[in-house]
Amino acid sequence: MDSNDELGRRDRKKLETRAALERAALRLVAERGLADVTVEDIAGAVDVSSRTFFNYFPTKEDALIGGDPTAAADLCGKLTAVPAAVPALEALRLVLREAAVSIQEQREQWLLRLKVFEQNPSLLPRLVAGGTETERSLTAVVAGRFGAGRFGAGPDATEQAGAGPAAETDDGPTGDGHAELVTAVALTAFRVAMMRWSAAAGDPLLVDLLDDAFSRLSTGLPDPGPSVT
Amino acid sequence: MDSNDELGRRDRKKLETRAALERAALRLVAERGLADVTVEDIAGAVDVSSRTFFNYFPTKEDALIGGDPTAAADLCGKLTAVPAAVPALEALRLVLREAAVSIQEQREQWLLRLKVFEQNPSLLPRLVAGGTETERSLTAVVAGRFGAGRFGAGPDATEQAGAGPAAETDDGPTGDGHAELVTAVALTAFRVAMMRWSAAAGDPLLVDLLDDAFSRLSTGLPDPGPSVT
DNA sequence: TAAAACTTTGCATGACCTGAAATTTTTTGG
DNA sequence: CCAAAAAATTTCAGGTCATGCAAAGTTTTA
């Protein structure tokens, strides 16, 4: 799974520099707070020029988000791989579950990141923002599922993400908006699960919190009973 | 409903300046795009200094968000006014419905704003961000409802937003996170409804789109049937 | 080793945003 | 109506962010 093999020295150094910048940014901001860390501080901690920092990240905040840029495409790919017979919400749950697992594999880094986000509320939008990009792509795939499903297409999903006929995947904005709603709600559930996980210091399994949220979603979010125990 | 009466001339001028800055920002960005409008442009269009702009808005983007700062508190107040017997999701629907009505009352301004947001995706996070603040407050109120409900408290909700006993409203982060989930999902539904409304150029009633989204939420977001007509 | 491709860097520049002090406008009350 | 007080605006200085460009350095390829 480590896709950083079979790379020339140059690309390896690039990955390493990028990771080092992310680590330094996270550490420094956790220590001093976002406002008291300059780009020069971060670059200096890795011993590169501040100009180089901007060769890797468009903004200071982006270095804190981490998460490789391929994440969105990965999710879309995995979603198209789920048989079309599976309901959209369930399909999204399965895909997000995988993401949750990979986050748990980098437990410490993610807990630190989430703590930084809590302590610097101005970053929260960015976290959702990473979602903005992801949300658009996923929505297209979900819309494609509905389009295919409505015409009785089989579960052999050879259609590429967003490469399907425009008439179907495009009905999102102008159609009934169900794909948008399901996708947005699913990502929201993911975000809430992450916050809960962070608030509990990573004690329960993120995957379980995610399942919990989705189970509530699928039953229409009823109020918890007066005596649940 | 126009709460700008019974104000001295000074406060009226402040409101007017603020509104003028919002209008100018929205107009200019709609014309030229976010990147080609400087704070100085906006301030100049209203004939104030750029420093004055920053006395009203912390960032350039904030001028585009608009929406008076009392919105969050208003929502919370209205939510506490809903009888505790009403399920949380339904209560949120009722409250957000009122917000939707008031948005429809400023139809043109909001449609322009949403168009600007679509054309400048970097702003979308900010839209959700305005939500970040709102979401925190609303979550506390929702958690309070559960706390009160669980102990059989009557529907006479005299409790103030966030002023209730900490032991109950505070169980959000460490509890089962239901309040967080319901609130976040409800606001997401609101956002999706707004996007749909904008995409349809304000043709259907925003309120109807909102009801539609909530009705799907309460039934667990099932896939649309193959032949819905 | 030499050329090609790429990365890093320094420099210049403009926009963003803040604090502090000076100036102008508005309110207050005698 | 006129000062004094209060508040808003402006000017100014300064730090940080972010980008474009060209020079210098490094890695790859041949």
Task: Walk me through the structure.
- The structure is a homodimer of 229-residue chains.
- The first copy, chain A, has 229 residues and is mainly alpha-helical.
- Chain A folds into two domains: 9-62, Arc Repressor Mutant, subunit A, CATH 1.10.10.60; 71-218, Tetracycline Repressor, domain 2 (Orthogonal Bundle), CATH 1.10.357.
- Helices cover 68% and strands 0% of the residues of chain A.
- Chain A has twelve helices and no strands.
- Chain A has helices spanning 9-32, 39-46, 50-56, 62-65, 71-81, 88-105, 107-119, 124-150, 166-169, 171-174, 178-199, 206-218.
- In chain A, helix 2 (39-46) crosses helix 3 (50-56) and helix 6 packs antiparallel against helix 12.
- The longest helix of chain A is centred in the middle third of the chain and has 27 residues, at 124-150.
- The model of chain A is unreliable at 152-172 (pLDDT under 50).
- At the A-B interface, helix 8, helix 11 and helix 12 of A face helix 8, helix 11 and helix 12 of B.
- The structure holds a DNA duplex (30 and 30 nucleotides).
Task: Please outline what is shown here.
Chain A has twelve helices and no strands. With 229 residues, chain A is mainly alpha-helical. The N and C termini of chain A lie far apart (41 Å).
- Biggest sheet details of chain A: none
> Looking at the structure, what is the overall shape of chain A?
globular
- The end-to-end distance of chain A, rounded to whole angstroms, is 41 Å
Largest binding interface between chains = A-B, 46 and 47 residues
The CATH class of the largest domain in chain A is identified as: Mainly Alpha
In the CATH hierarchy, the architecture of the largest domain in chain A is Orthogonal Bundle
Low-confidence stretches of chain A: 152-172
CATH superfamily of the largest domain in chain A: Tetracycline Repressor, domain 2
Strand content of chain A: under 5%
Please tell me how large the radius of gyration of chain A is: 20 Å
